[in-house]
Amino acid sequence: MAANARLYSAEQVQALDQRTIEQGVPGFALMMQAGSAALDEITRRWPRAQRLCIFCGSGNNGGDGYVVAALAHRLGLNVRILALHAPDQLKGEAADAVQLARESGVSIDDWHPEIEIPSEIDVIVDALLGTGTRGEIRSPFDRAIASINRSGAPVVALDIPSGLHADTGALLGEAVKADLTVTFIARKFGLYTGQAPDVTGEIVLAPLAVAESTLTESGHVGELMLAERLQDTLPRRQPTTYKGHCGHLLVVGGQPGFGGSTIMSAETAARLGAGLVSLATASVHIPPALTRCPEMMVHEARNGLDIEALVDKATAVLIGPGLGQGAWGQGLMQAVMKAEGPRLVDADGLHLLAAGYAGERRDDWILTPHPGEAAMLLDCSVAEVQADRYQAALSLHRLYGGVIVLKGAGTLVVGGESPEECFISPFGNPGMASGGMGDVLGGMIASLLVQGLSPLEAAASGVLIHGLAADDAARDQGERGLLASDLACYARRRANPGG
């Protein structure tokens, strides 16, 4: 795992900071590097910016803001600091930063609600609250955040947008909506999941003087998946490869009127390289399935008995899309559950799992709930799931075993409690808010599973390809109107990184 892909909790980052200081790098030197890195990003992104307004709180996050102000003033920019904490009360490195700003000639004013941010301000810098913030945002910070968000000016957040929980990605009230977040030392877990994508904007990592060895030797929480990892997980095939080497996937589902979901799952699995794809579905869906994808083998499923032999022959089974929760779906679910072998359970399959198989654990299955389904499986509210998505996914893993894919912005893949078994995808876009996206994701993951990837790696790589394909499609033709079936051709390209 690349050091710059590791994800850390706020506490772990604080430990990294302290360890670096113990290794001989002064704390104020780190603060100067942070301010310099942030200013470099500001001038890179807004090269014509001349007027900066910097909101400073207490602690080192506020200190970072004072350093940015001092360095920007030295560059000849017009800088104004609005302080929400008396500058003279700051301690340690933050107090040194205040002195630096004053010596540089920066204007420092106390903020109060009546202050309006001038329309001519080119960039606002958020240095209000750092990664240690946990509780609900209180006055006057909540009002200052609202003022920043009303301004209409571009916003740069230092380390993390104020009002965002650094570990969970939950909002602690109204959070600063940044266009750019320059995060220091290491990537914080909460920047990439939950509601974070709504407020972080572009995220740039500035590692400062922290040695890579310090990062790799320290504890972390998980891994941010980068596109480059597909080069290692999806190698080129050997010249002698044939379909028998590439697995046989059985897709089960599609009660009358709901055949599209299973057809999309099966077709996407074929596009990602499964050697054979069978579809067991209601008879009414056989003609459209074969019309859509004649390469798949389609079978009528009247009941569970009809699919027992198919289940036994398959390398893995995907069950759930369009399955329904009635007697027909229950019978098919029973046939799949009593057999051995890898399984991917999605959609209605998850409801049937909770209703009839609560407490059953398997190491070789993959469960792919969205937040509503996760809340159903955990018997809690969607809000509780979204408040701490990692803990929700971990709780599902403890209950059911296997690999959990908690879908949504910043999709999480959890296969255990070690950092090497937790992945977040930073890819995907709002165009994916349309029907069938979860069905094609299931097809992608299941296809990689039958091709020999472990359940954890199949889930992680499938999620990664899904997000990348959606971004490729949106880049070509925009987000609105993006259909789930549009992703297959883009996913195929992403699944052949060495081609």
UniProtKB/TrEMBL annotation:
(6S)-NADPHX binds at residues 60-64, 130-136, 159, 322, 370, 439. Gene3D superfamilies: 3.40.1190.20, YjeF N-terminal domain. Its cofactor is Mg(2+); K(+). One of its GO terms (biological process) is nicotinamide nucleotide metabolic process. Keywords: ATP-binding, Isomerase, Lyase, Metal-binding, Multifunctional enzyme, NAD, NADP, Nucleotide-binding, Potassium. AMP binds at residues 407-411, 438. Coiled coil: none annotated. Belongs to the NnrD/CARKD family. This is Bifunctional NAD(P)H-hydrate repair enzyme. It comes from Kushneria marisflavi. The lineage of its organism: Bacteria, Pseudomonadati, Pseudomonadota, Gammaproteobacteria, Oceanospirillales.
